[in-house]
Known about the structure:
The chain is α+β, with helices and mostly antiparallel strands. The chain is 34% helix and 29% strand.
Amino acid sequence: MWPLLGAALAIVAQDPAALRATPHATARELTALWAGEVVEVRDECAEYLKVYDYRLERGGYVLATAVRRIGLTQADAPELLAVVRFLRDSPGQESLGISYGAAYLRAAAPGALTAEPLAAIAAMAERLADAESRRGAGTSRSAHHVEVAEQFGIHMHSIDIQGRMQVCYDGELYRRVLAMPGASNEQVVRALLSLTRPECNAPDPNGLQRSLDADNADLLQRTAEPRDPVLRSRLQARRALLWAAVAYASASDPQHAQAAARHALDALLEVRAEDLGDAYRAEYLEARLRVGSIRWALALPDFIPPAAPLRIERGAPGQTCLVLTDAALPAGPGSRRCTYGAVWIASSQRLAGGRGWTIAVQPLQGWRELWVFHVGERGDWTVDVVPPGDADAEEGYVEFAGFAPRTQRLLIAREIKQGGRFQRRYEELRLSDLVRVRQSRSPELLADFGRWPDARWVRDTLLLH
Length: 465
């Protein structure tokens, strides 16, 4: 990472800085140097410095005003730390701040190291990864900054989220902060918030993520709340999100799922959304959506009456099948449907007049559907799935909100995340074919929501609160 000990060093401060073949403004440009790049200074020539970049294995001349000379002795450590503190909260200067942070770690006395510089470098690395995610990997200025940061042991990884690339810092320095006995409560909470980011957890086909979510949720539950109101609400929102993940993973154990869902709801209710502002509001909305998607875990499952036409059967290993039969009507080919997801039995609801039945089914974490058993156009029982949103929706849930017997309309409510934005929508569907008749962003604008809302939905849903 660093040139030979005793060499005169400088950090590139301008972005980009031209490395030229000779010390002249008209000389051929060999390459561009980016903020944070460390070079060895070998000579001076007028307003230029003759330098060598060990990472690029290339030498040349750069304007003296484009770099800042540094020292790596213990006497230089306080000045280096002061620069790190200045750059820590300066968006766009992450690679420069990481470089100064690495220089400080090299210069600091063995017993003088605290959690502060580690937390600062980690925060800048995380912000740099987010900048790369927003601008598109490999196509932006931030891509060069990532390359500069990587020479100091900062590692990133990428996750494909529905065709969008999320770049994430691996969190190694945050883990070191957690291991330091002198770390403050605020530094610990910030480290935990970074290490438990849901968008940076790749899907795990082996199920190890379930155990990790449970461990992280328990760890956050035991973490002391910080005094800072923003950080406190962020911590509560993350607790809610992780406990919601535990509740979904525990769907086969109703009592465990109920306990986790209670933790999730309690944490969500402790969030003061007004404290989060625009910068962190999305974290609250994400937690609210995830808790909303598992709210049926709060109710222990009721047994469906034996006389009811809806039956639950076992399918293939790991499958749950729902079957609707009625002696008065023939069973259509679609009156039986199976899933590997969670079937929330407590959500089962017979429609007024006995012409339909709904139940909430959750095939994925953060994605809950509504299965509607109804009499189809051919006069037989059939089942249709109402998803939270279209194919572009990233996550969400849809709820049974009521039924208007006079117009035979099913009332549903949705909350989805699409394109990074959260939306709520209320709709009236024609029961016979589930075609949308009316929709609105406010239930007050739909007459049937005023006349025929389901009392249990009004009482328990998070969409109205």
